[in-house]
Specification:
Blueprint (H helix, E strand, L loop, with lengths): L4 H18 L24 H4 L8 E4 L2 H11 L5 E5 L5 H10 L4 E7 L16 H7 L5 E6 L6 H6 L7 E5 H5 L4 H17 L6 E5 L1 H9 E3 H5 L17 E5 L2 H6 L1 H4 L5 E5 L5 H10 L3 E6 L2 H10 L5 E3 L5 H9 L15 E4 L10 H15 L3 E5 L1 H9 E3 H7 L13
Helix pairs in contact: 3-4, 15-16
Length: 412
């Protein structure tokens, strides 16, 4: 029988292997080309099951001085090396020193304060002389920076002894509760530690803005398996939109029953061929969903595949254009209706991968303020990772999530 050249080569390789095995009696070869059998008593589960899942580093957000001090007491351990940015040299700093004990060390950092005519400092209150005179502890050093951006120098100065925990008072350090800047600082701190082959245990940040975000950002997988409970068909406590973070098209679409209710008016930005848009449209009936994408050819394809639906060329970053689309669609209510959308689904190139967290949050904030949706679902790995780490301390406290020692399960 004739055979191809490739078949002949394959047959030749099999014969060579067979001859090699036959003439090497002193060595034992497996008869299979798969991986060698494990030693007796070893587990035969797939390799992935052998790999221990790395737990996310918790970013715990507090809102008040009492809550902040309580959180520090429960997350810090004796012997920790702690970086406090925006130190007030007050009860929080004292709690840090007490928690880490004599074997730990704290680096307390703040920017220089300028006094106003009233005698108060421009950022919070701080009695440095009183703290230094009365505290009596020796397990810390106080650093006063000329400007906030110099905080990175503190990391460089501690290369040989990286920090276990960072404590950030966003308002005290930045002069305002700047959500994106605070998250940028947290990201830089964590990345710096990881580059030094050191994994920080936690970040504690005093910020009402980040606490609000932590309560609103929802991990889609945890939502669907019941680990997290949120009523996404009602508005959040502070009126800001919930943000559901998903990874992959399948999970993105599986969120629909948890988010969409009948009568909702929805827009999908980054709709591509309109498959998800059609699913949303059906779930929201008698409401509906329109789709938009930045590519004209993509929209032409969507219109051909779903002729009974409405699609528009549009840019997710241009909120006013998204509102104009609604006014030109069947979703428009009474004349002059300025309402936005109930739900927004977003699948945007460049934001679906591991990078772009701050850009994603910037977009989500813009959509939230301009269109006032009840919920935004975004397909984004970087946002999923943020959702895995962020937690509001108030939620932990309300759940009473304590372990046997009376401390919160900080790594769950």
């Amino acid at each position: 029988m004739l055979c191809s050249l490739s078949q002949a080569r394959s047959l030749r390789l099999v014969l060579i292997c067979f001859i090699g095995i036959s003439f090497c009696p002193q060595r034992s070869f497996p008869l299979s080309l798969s991986s060698p059998s494990p030693p007796p008593g070893a587990s035969t589960s797939p390799r992935k099951k052998h790999q221990q899942r790395v737990k996310p580093i918790p970013y715990v957000a507090t809102t008040s001085t009492v809550e902040h001090s309580r959180c520090l007491t429960q997350y810090l351990r004796e012997g920790d090396k702690v970086l406090e940015l925006g130190t007030q040299l007050d009860a929080s700093s004292t709690n840090i020193l007490n928690a880490i004990g004599s074997t730990g060390h704290a680096t307390l950092v703040d920017v220089k304060r300028t006094e106003t005519k009233s005698g108060r400092t421009s950022q919070g209150t701080r009695d440095r002389d009183k703290f230094l005179a009365n505290d009596g502890a020796t397990n810390y050093k106080f650093i006063e920076l000329e400007q906030f951006s110099n905080w990175r120098m503190v990391l460089d100065a501690n290369q040989d002894s990286p920090f276990d925990v960072m404590v950030l008072d966003a308002t005290a350090m930045l002069g305002n509760d700047l959500e994106l800047t605070a998250l940028s600082v947290i990201s830089e701190f964590v990345d710096d530690c990881l580059r030094r082959n050191h994994r920080p245990r936690a970040v504690v940040v005093k910020s009402k803005a980040i606490s609000s975000l932590a309560r609103r950002v929802v991990h889609a997988q945890r939502l669907m398996d019941g680990t997290v409970e949120r009523n996404l068909k009602s508005r959040s406590r502070d009126g800001r939109p919930y943000i559901v973070t998903s990874v992959g098209v399948e999970e993105y679409r599986r969120t629909i029953p948890h988010v969409v209710q009948q009568g909702d008016k929805i827009v999908e930005v980054g709709c591509f061929s309109g498959v998800t848009t059609a699913l949303l449209h059906a779930a929201a009936s008698p409401g509906g969903c329109i789709g938009c994408d930045i590519g004209p050819k993509i929209i032409e394809r969507a219109k051909k595949e779903h002729p009974d639906m409405e699609f528009f060329v549009g840019d997710a970053w241009k909120s006013l254009d998204l509102l104009r689309m609604k006014s030109r669609s069947n979703l428009q209510g009474a004349p002059g209706d300025l309402d936005g959308y109930d739900v927004i689904y977003a699948d945007i190139g460049g934001l679906s991968g591991p990078d772009g967290t701050l850009e994603s949050l910037s977009l989500l904030n813009g959509l939230g303020y301009a269109l006032e949706p009840r919920c935004v679902v975004i397909k984004s790995l970087c946002m999923r990772r943020l959702a895995s780490s962020l937690r509001a301390y108030s939620d932990d406290w309300e759940k009473g999530n304590r372990n046997r020692d009376g401390k919160f399960a900080a790594h769950k």
